[in-house]
Specification:
Number of strands: 4
Shape: extended
Strand order of the largest sheet: 1-2
Order of helices and strands: HHEEHHHEEHH
Oligomer: single chain
Largest sheet: 2 strands, antiparallel
Strand content: 15-25%
Helix content: 40-55%
Number of helices: 7
């Protein structure tokens, strides 16, 4: 039996194998689905990817503290197109190459640790930390004690965002009302 510390010291492949075995013991990463194949027919598939599932969840959680919200949204927006290109064999297509370059660029400041618990088919994130994390309680706190963020600062922002809605209500009536 491997200990996590020993596995990490031995390298990435052994780390993946350790995570894969641990996740499989807990039933993580099993997926059964009916899908539409590239040629149009329906196909039933059973997939087992325990280690991938855990590492993907841990990675996404780490991205949650290291990437800006707009970058996370852009990655999520592009993901279906990239997956489709890979699935249909367009790995060497310049568009796919551009997508990979974008994804790689998002990972430059991604470093840190994520703690994951495995239980009855679930991989639950229990904690994370990163020196590149963008969260700072002292800045983001809304309890009014911080110098960086004060609740009253949001009022101007809210008013600006409400202006187009006010204009719509003035010209077209409130939402749901027929003209």
């Amino acid at each position: 039996m491997y200990s996590a510390g020993k596995v990490l010291a031995e390298g990435l492949l052994n780390t993946f194998q350790w995570v894969d075995a641990a996740a499989a013991r807990h039933g993580v990463g099993a997926l059964g689905m009916v899908e539409s194949r590239y040629v149009g027919m329906k196909s039933r598939g059973e997939y087992q990817a325990p280690g991938h599932s855990v590492l993907l969840a841990a990675h996404a959680d780490l991205e949650g503290i290291c990437l800006t919200g707009s970058l996370i949204q852009e990655k999520q927006r592009r993901m279906p197109d990239f997956a489709q290109m890979v699935y249909t064999g367009h790995w060497f297509d310049p568009a796919c190459e551009s997508q990979r370059a974008f994804i790689q660029s998002t990972q430059r400041a991604l470093t840190g640790d994520t703690r994951v618990a495995l239980y009855k088919g679930n991989a639950m994130i229990e904690g994370r930390r990163s020196d590149c994390g963008l969260y700072d309680f002292g800045i983001a706190t809304m309890n009014g004690e911080g110098k960086n963020y004060r609740q009253e600062d949001a009022s101007g922002f809210i008013k600006l965002h409400a202006l187009p809605l006010k204009m719509r209500a003035l010209r077209q009536g409130p939402p749901g009302q027929s003209n």
